[in-house]
Amino acid sequence: MFDRVTPQNDWPAMERRILAWWKETDAFGKLARQNAGAEPWSFQDGPITANNPMGVHHAWGRSFKDVWSRFFSMQGRDLRWQNGFDCQGLWVEVEVEKSLGFKSKRDIEAYGIDAFVRRCKERVLRYAAVQTEQSIRLGMWMHWDDPADLRFLADHIDEAEALTVDTPAGPVTATVEQLVGQLGKWPWNKSYFTFADTNNYLIWRFLKECHRRGWVYRGRDVMPWCARCGTGLSQHEIATEGYQDLTHKSPTVRFPLVDRPGESLLVWTTTPWTLSANVSAAVGPELTYLKVRQGTTSCTWPRARPRRP
């Protein structure tokens, strides 16, 4: 006899029960320790901006990433298990400007650029905590920072005096600015943040080397400019300067017609890797097709290629 299966399942309760069981048994920790030192498989998360709670599209992408990481961990590979947060850029600045009621960049100057930067870091830390909690609820396995630690740093971001803070590496005495700059490295060793000192110093080092080699110069570039944000429109920059027209070979495949011996459809494709799984060919009832003969074989293809929806 089997137990009765109720059709009225409480899926959120089931999720929380599984998450609690994982935590109780240290399932992720055991897997990470078991594979430590084995053949590595490098997977570094392309970070989403910690500017608001995750959207459905973020959760979808993170689910795929988690499945991919778990697949290789099940093969015994050693992963870094490191999540990332994008912390910089116009998105964060605009949201902070909204929260402060700013109308122009002059408001930032009057407020103080250093204070405004701290507000941006504060926002990132708070929403990194939110996104961490959401990712854990999603079931994503990573070496996560404690959301309480991120909120603590956000709460004390304006304090200039050194504090003694309990970290995963033990008590550390430093200013909050210094502790925030070390996220992703010792003493945290968890999620990486793009505003961390290592990332910023590497960017300046790269620019310094470009300058040393004479690759940095002053010039002019005509492009649309956003007067509100005080920056060029990057979408235009990519569309006009980042793309090139290239010619590539593409296959045209012959699909024999079952009920017409010696006749085939000619199908042109830019995605030949899907051919092994194709089970049908779409034919447009309102399109004009041409029928040609080559030797003893007849082939048919559309005169004009239809637009893709």
Overall, the morphology is extended
Instruction: Please state the oligomeric state of the protein chains shown.
Output: single chain
Task: Count the DSSP helices.
Answer: 10
Secondary-structure element string: HHEHEHHHHEEHEHEEHEEEE
Strand order of the largest sheet: 8-9-11-10
Strand proportion: 5-15%
* Low-confidence runs: 304-309
Superfamily (CATH H level) name of the domain at 11-212: HUPs
Q: What's the total count of β strands?
A: 11
Q: Assign the CATH architecture of the domain at 11-212.
A: 3-Layer(aba) Sandwich
Report the CATH C-level class of the domain at 11-212.
Answer: Alpha Beta
Write a structural description.
This protein is α/β, with parallel strands linked by helices. The protein has a domain at 11-212: 3-Layer(aba) Sandwich (Rossmann fold), CATH 3.40.50. Helix content is 41%, strand content 14%. The chain has helices spanning 11-25, 27-35, 56-74, 90-100, 105-111, 113-138, 147-155, 176-181, 197-212, 234-242; strands at 48-49, 84-86, 163-167, 170-174, 192-193, 225-226, 231-232, 252-256, 263-268, 289-294, 297-302. Strands 8-9-11-10 form a four-stranded mixed sheet, with no helix packed on it. A three-stranded parallel sheet has the order 1-2-5, with no helix packed on it. It has a two-stranded antiparallel sheet with strand order 3-4. Helix 6 runs antiparallel to helix 7. The two termini are 53 Å apart.
Q: What's the SSE blueprint?
A:
Blueprint: H1 11-25, H2 27-35, E1 48-49, H3 56-74, E2 84-86, H4 90-100, H5 105-111, H6 113-138, H7 147-155, E3 163-167, E4 170-174, H8 176-181, E5 192-193, H9 197-212, E6 225-226, E7 231-232, H10 234-242, E8 252-256, E9 263-268, E10 289-294, E11 297-302
Parallel strand pairs: 1-2, 2-5, 9-11
Antiparallel strand pairs: 3-4, 6-7, 8-9, 10-11
